[in-house]
Design brief:
This protein is 37% helix and 19% strand. The protein is α/β, with parallel strands linked by helices. Helix 6 crosses helix 7. The longest helix has 31 residues. Bound molecules: D-xylulose (XUL). The site of D-xylulose (XUL) has 14 residues, from helix 14. Belongs to the FGGY kinase family. Keywords: ATP-binding, Carbohydrate metabolism, Kinase, Nucleotide-binding, Transferase, Xylose metabolism. It comes from Sporothrix epigloea.
């Protein structure tokens, strides 16, 4: 532990993700002082019937988690922190808590939520200490929180996509208008369509709902013992927030609520949104002071979504990109330019007004790679990825053989995908490697489980490269070379940072570097699997220690952050030859996706 970390204030970052609740505690010098985690399947799987942290109803496409699970997990993670050797001392020094939570998920509070929450602020005299689950047993109008993997809302999404369209315009005008207004076209998991479906399917629950939280504002509410507002970044994952006006979009509230009159009731349920990502929302509820010994001085800073928190895990510069390889795979960049498009997402930056986060989110990330891995013979050296990685590295770029010069392309969707919106399925194509011409479904012998391993990683990276093109531009690296046009590099990110469980995989790092480039290389964040919890902890620190509202997160954290020990270069990134090879088939990859999308849409409309 660094000297500065043995005294002074500490900051706690939570990450309530799909499969775990993690906690990281840092000191003012950013050193990590303590960590704990709860694994939903291992700790509560049989009690709640969970698989990979959620419950799925395949007939409807519903994916959800019990709110009681979240409450039990919060108690357990505090208990685990307290049980650490330095636990009691560390908990007493925490000055602020912030955190990150799975985006889009929503929690439905009943009419007496405020009173139940206020019970957490009361000092208990009973020797039988109640749990969060006990205190909040009657606080909710629905016991379930929809998860971001839910895909039950196609009917609602169709309505969202159509709602802002001008009557005379083409059919893609609606999604475009929605993306221009809210930062995203309609997506199954976005909270607006989710709320609309809950109103349709369970009108009584909806009527009894007094307040709707995102998972981030839900956790903040529990810690505060009062209803916390949504935060300025996570609110952009709802399809309801007008980003240019920074206010709720009235026509979309009306659509969700069912009428103009009902829209004001929905606005009341959603509450105000906190524009400032920093500062304090209030002191921690006495429940946590009494039960776990947290300091009563501890402040609750605004929580945000897990992806917005990931960009806070290190000071990002323009043109740096983050690839988060968790249950979902996400590609993130920060930009001052708001350039929305129906195929991706723009969100407000969680701490810096005027900046935006660009995001691509893939459902078929880690779990899809696992499925391909499991078609290969099992490994014997204890590393479950050894054979997969060998297959990736032994297969040439795009599986091109000297014999036919054909590039192999594919889509591997084990569950229905977000980008693009295509149901589960596997598709394999080939095209001419030199220019992407002659795109056609592949003959069955063109692919094998061995080539699939490389192709699935390439396919995920090609999709990211295709869609992030508007955000990158060609440039000359380094001042000293700016007069030398020969050193001008093609458009690509500067650094690609890998976070999440998959960031430990060297073969994936290499393919991402080959496809996406990265003029300064590919780096792994040392706390790769905990990046969003760390971002939450840094956010709590900035929220309290910023000089004033004008000291930005990047200024403050940038002064204290050192790359040594925090990041590790895992791949060279830009390789001119391979980068050009992938560039030659990018158009064909786009065309393949469009073809499959059109076929799948035709099937859907024919039903
Ligand atoms: C982002 C998304 C996922 C979840 C994962 O839009 O749905 O990345 O945030 O928890």
């Amino acid at each position: 532990m660094a000297a500065a970390a043995s005294q002074g204030p500490l900051y706690l970052g939570f990450d309530l993700s799909t499969q775990q609740l993690k906690a990281i505690i840092v000191a003012s010098d950013l050193s990590i002082v303590a960590q704990a985690k709860v694994d939903f399947d291992a700790d509560f799987g049989s009690k709640y019937g969970l698989t990979k942290g959620v419950i799925a109803n395949d007939d409807e496409g519903e994916v959800y988690a019990p709110v009681a699970l979240f409450l039990e997990a919060i108690d357990l993670v505090f208990a685990r922190l307290k049980a650490l050797d330095n636990g009691p001392e560390v908990l007493a020094r925490i000055r602020a808590i912030s955190g990150s939570c799975q985006q889009h998920g929503s929690v439905y509070w009943g009419g007496s939520a405020a009173e139940h929450l206020a019970n957490l602020q009361k000092t208990t005299t009973s020797s039988q200490a109640p749990t969060l689950k006990d205190v909040l047993a009657d606080a909710f109008s629905r016991p379930w929180a929809p998860n971001w993997q839910d895909h039950s809302t196609q009917a609602e999404c169709d309505k969202f996509d159509a709602h802002l369209a001008s009557t005379t315009a083409s059919s893609d005008d609606g999604p475009r208008k929605l993306a221009e207004t809210t930062g995203s076209a309609a997506h199954h998991r976005f909270t607006g369509p989710q709320i609309m479906r809950i109103r349709r399917k369970w009108p009584e629950d909806y009527a009894q709902t007094k307040h709707i939280s995102l998972v981030s504002s839900f956790v903040a509410s529990v810690l505060l013992g009062s209803l916390a507002p949504m935060d300025i970044s996570d609110v952009c994952g709802m399809d309801l927030w007008d980003i240019s006006k920074q206010q709720w979009c009235e026509p979309l509230l009306e659509l969700t609520a069912g009428s103009a009159e009902a829209a004001s009731d929905l606005r009341a349920k959603l509450g105000n949104v906190r524009i400032d990502g920093g500062g304090s929302m209030g002191s921690i509820a006495s429940y946590f002071v009494e039960t776990y010994g947290v300091s009563p001085e501890c402040q609750i800073a605004p929580f945000t979504g897990d992806n917005p928190a990931t960009i806070l895990a290190l000071p990002l510069r323009p043109l740096d990109a983050i690839v988060s390889l968790g249950t979902s795979t996400t590609f993130l960049m920060v930009t001052p330019h708001y350039k929305p498009d129906p195929s991706y997402h723009f969100l407000n930056h969680p701490t810096t007004p005027g900046q935006y986060m660009f995001m691509l989110c893939y459902k078929n990330g880690g779990l899809a790679r696992e499925k391909v891995r499991d078609t290969l013979p099992p490994t014997t050296n204890g590393d479950p990825w050894a054979n997969f990685n060998k297959a990736v590295l032994d297969t040439p770029v795009l599986g091109v053989s000297d014999a036919d010069r054909k590039a192999k392309l594919g889509l591997y969707f084990y569950i229905n995908e977000i980008v693009p919106n295509i149901p589960a399925g596997t598709w394999r194509y080939t095209c001419n490697a030199a220019d992407g011409s002659d795109l056609a479904p592949a003959a069955s012998e063109a692919h094998s489980p061995l080539t699939d391993a490389r192709e699935i990683v390439e396919s995920q990276a090609l999709s990211m490269r295709l869609r992030s093109q508007p955000l990158v531009h060609d440039y000359v690296p380094g001042e000293e070379t700016s007069s030398n046009p020969k050193l001008r590099l093609p458009a690509q990110p500067r650094r690609v940072y890998l976070v999440g469980g998959g960031s430990l995989n060297p073969a994936i790092a290499q393919v991402l570097g080959e496809v996406l480039g990265g003029s300064e290389g590919v780096y792994r964040l040392d706390v790769g699997g905990n990046a969003c919890a760390l971002g939450g902890a840094y956010k709590a620190l900035w929220a309290m220690e910023r000089r004033d509202e004008h000291e930005t997160f990047d200024e403050l954290i940038g002064k204290r952050w050192t790359p040594e020990g925090a990041i590790e270069k895992v791949d060279v990134g830009y390789r001119p030859e391979q980068f050009a090879q992938y560039g030659q088939v990018l158009g064909a990859f786009d065309q393949m996706e469009q073809t499959i999308l059109a076929e799948e849409q035709a099937k859907r409309h024919a039903k």
